[in-house]
Amino acid sequence: MSDGPDTQLASAALEELRFQRYRLSLPQGGASRLFDGRLIYLGSAPDNDFVVDHPTVSRTHARLEFDGTGFLLRDLQSKNGTWIDGVRVNEAYIPANARLRFGTAEVVFGLDEQAVEVQLARGDRFGRLIGRSAQMREIFALLPRVARSDVSVLIEGESGTGKELVAEAIQAHSRRADKPLVIFDCSAVPPELVESELFGHVKGAFTGAIANRAGVFEAAHGGTLFLDEIGELPIDLQPKLLRALEKGEFKPVGDNARRVADVRVIAATNRQLDREVEAGNFREDLYYRLAVIKVRLPPLRRRPEDIPLLVETFLEAAGATDVQVGYETMRRLQAHPWPGNVRELKNYVERAVVLAENGRLETRHLSSRSIKREPAVAEVGDGSRTLLSVDFDLPFKDAKSRLLEVFETRYWTRLLEETGGNISEAARRGGIHRKSLEYVVKKLDLRGDPRGEG
Questions:
Q1: What digits encode the pLDDT tens for the residues 221-278?
Q2: Which pLDDT belongs to residue 375?
Q3: Pick from 249, 230, 228, 229: nearest CA to 240
Q4: Mode of pairing for the β-strands spanning 71-75 and 62-66
Q5: Longest alpha-carbon distance in the chain
Q6: Distance between CA 39 and CA 20 in Å, rounded?
Q7: How many CB atoms lie within 10 A of CB 97?
Q8: Which tens digits make up the pLDDT trace of 128-151?
Q9: What is the pLDDT of residue 6?
Q10: In angstroms, rounded to a whole number, what is the distance separating the alpha carbons of residues 260 and 197?
Q11: Strand-pair partners of 82
Q12: Is the pTM of this model over 0.85?
């Protein structure tokens, strides 16, 4: 069957890149990984694509990108520099086989025989998603194909990167576009009520169940169910969700009869679920059932080239097209880390428009965060008090995430100090799996002895 005009038009709107797979290896029997991604990040932080755990390596040290010409290695303002075959570089193309150095840590780069083809959309929008960066255009090329199918999708990304917008765009371009898109946040419901919210309940199923109530699976029948923060789903409920996905049937709480629902599921998480599987916090079979297609949204700090377009879009939405953004202002916005990602940038633009003087956007409030900022006082175990700063400029989820990171850092730092850095003992005292704590230690850059078996 020949391609129709819509397919031909879609193909014309794509740019195709072809390159060879490549391998990165640490010498002397260290980690070795084969990559087929067009863009990866390297550094000591656990959220990098290739982790180089060495004291001279910055948290996000460098990025490696195939740009159509070759493999471009770019130093990301690291403390100790980046080298290709003994030559220090800020940005340079890598030969087919080379020895790279990050700080004093060596990594071997080599090409594989198998070729990879990647498509980039030529446009800078898909649904309400916006971006001119190659990372976003690669996602824009993928999503229409994903939308045409009915497979489950797992969206990974930090809070504020636009995971819900991906779900909206997939739904809007699917055969279910005229059916409901039901959103359920697994982190916003007490664990004891999650099953009822998902699958509903019958009258008398538990105290307070005064009538039959439909769950989100039933409400989404014929359409799409977006399960946000799926990583927060209690592990005892995960087999029931897996059955609902595999069999297309579920059982309301207190009911003996099963019901059928025709639902496409899109899940999202700000965690790296494959690592949660390794730590025993998430079922492997459910992970693979959800991640038939996986979409990873990059944080805003890793796509600064999108910030001018995003600022322009947010100014238009605020009716402030006459507000000017100077070169230095834009440079500072692109250099800002944006822990709240696109959502934080949008809030900043809206606030800055109100405070703009002489019709110019300013960044003087960007780092001070003095507006509507109040301390929250928390009691500590020894009776002392500590101040946790609550940033009311951020949306609830982002502010909560930031507070939780401060709490995690203080909690585990104290336990690790008490156990002399013994990760196994600290995990036992904290009541979590050892592998989970290993991940936390890497994520928060804490000090712990991974050899400590207790």
A1: 999 999 999 999 999 999 999 999 998 888 888 887 888 889 999 999 998 898 889 8
A2: 38
A3: 249
A4: antiparallel
A5: 74
A6: 13
A7: 12
A8: 999 999 999 999 999 999 999 999
A9: 45
A10: 16
A11: 89, 102
A12: no
CA distance 180 to 127: 17
CA angle 436, 387, 444 (to 5 degrees): 25
Strand order in the sheet with 87-89: 32-35, 14-25, 105-121, 97-102, 82-84, 87-89
Distance CA 287, CA 285 (A): 5
CB-count exposure of residue 263 (10 Å: 0-12, 13-18, 19+): buried
Buried b (16+ CB within 10 A) or exposed e, 195-212: bbbbbbbbeebeeeeeee
Say yes or no to pLDDT of 388 above 70: no
Which has the closest alpha carbon to 216: 183, 172, 186, 191? 183
Encoded tokens for 170: 């997939």
Task: Give the C-alpha separation, 176 to 286, whole Å.
Answer: 24
pLDDT tens digits, 13-27: 789 999 999 999 998
Confidence band of 45 (pLDDT split at 50, 70, 90): confident
Q: Binning pLDDT at 50, 70 and 90, where does residue 366 land?
A: low
For residue 325, the number of C-alpha atoms closer than 13 Å in the C-beta half-sphere is 22
Q: Are 274 and 287 in contact (CB under 8 A)?
A: yes
Element (H, E) at 141: helix 134-148
- Residues 6 or more apart in contact with residue 56 via CB below 8 angstroms: 79, 80, 102, 103, 104, 105
CB atoms within 10 A of CB 175: 11
CB under 8 Å to 341, separation ≥6 — which residues?
158, 159, 160, 161, 162, 299, 300, 398
Range in 356-365, 424-433, 442-451 the model is least confident about: 442-451
Residue corresponding to tokens 């180089």: 52
* CA-based nearest residue to 309, from 352, 366, 349: 349
Residue type, 450: P
Quick one: DSSP state of residue 381?
Answer: T
